[in-house]
Amino acid sequence: MNYYPKSITSLIKNISKLPGIGEKTAERLALHMLRAPRQEAQQLAESILDVKDKIRFCSRCFGLSDGDLCRICSDPGRNPRLVCVVEQPADMVALEKSGAFAGMYHILQGVLSPMDGVGPDQLRIRELEKRIQDEAIQEIVLATGTHVEGESTASYLGERLQRFSVKVTRIASGVPIGGDLKFVDQVTLKRAMETRHAL
Amino acid sequence: MNYYPKSITSLIKNISKLPGIGEKTAERLALHMLRAPRQEAQQLAESILDVKDKIRFCSRCFGLSDGDLCRICSDPGRNPRLVCVVEQPADMVALEKSGAFAGMYHILQGVLSPMDGVGPDQLRIRELEKRIQDEAIQEIVLATGTHVEGESTASYLGERLQRFSVKVTRIASGVPIGGDLKFVDQVTLKRAMETRHAL
Questions:
Q1: Which ranges of chain A does DSSP label H, i.e. alpha helix?
Q2: How close A15 comes to chain B (CA, Å)?
Q3: Which of A21, B127, B156, B199 is the most exposed place for a label (fewest CB within 10 A)?
Q4: Fold of A6-54
């Protein structure tokens, strides 16, 4: 890898540390940056540092924020009685893009995973309980993933939140829209059949 | 795209300006940088700027360099009488990786492409002719690509360099090694058949 001058080699090395970026792609991107206008490269470099400097966790929902409260938590137009619990900020963004939810969020910052040493105390569960008490929340929608850890986190939360007078729901799982039944896995089909509903 | 705080949104925007990086990948990379140690993000940002500040063209071969002469042009162990002409620095690196060439290079910085306004004067052809005169070069290997522009640039150079007493050769084209004949396109097969050689 010392076919290029030293500064290009080290840029390639740093780019290929990014997830999902192989050496070939890193090389291509480094050569692009070399050719790109200086302003474009500078904007990219600055925005990388900016993110590290400015982003912190929202003090209410623990999503990403550049202030004390995130954009959603400080939006008076949203329903503060309805809170959707997700694993990570990206899950919140996916739901926002769907436009299907107008309540607030609570980001757990992970899922229960005893193998990785993540128990209830490593997630933002106590903070969720405090919000249920303080904010007069009426419904908690559990929107953790449908993988094993997501499911067990949801059922753990379902039980743990029983002691509060709050309605706890789980997002539906089943055949994805636009999906052909023959391409859907058996577990999903079984779930879709079990949770079938009247038309 | 204003689901994330402003500094993340602008990082995503800047990343997705890179070639071959879509919005989803840019989002994934931005969130990775957010989680990555500050030092890693800083190294990446600095190496982007470093490349813009330090890299210039080698004054002899017009490849990338961080000094006046590039690593290859200043290597006394290479054959200075043999010069390989390529389109871009990345082509030179590909040849270097193959380990098949121990001469010098000359980077044209493009190919003839009248449609894009690239004529002989936009390439480093005069500089190549000057090198042929000054450096007592014995052989010029034309290693531009085998696409239409690469081929026509090679044949243009082949004619133009006839007035010098230098041997001009062209890299071979044909069936790639490890290739199955049935997957090779007709033009390549035709060329491979035409340029067949005795064993």
A1: 6-15, 23-35, 38-54, 89-98, 125-134, 148-160, 186-194
A2: 7
A3: B199
A4: Helicase, Ruva Protein; domain 3 (1.10.8)
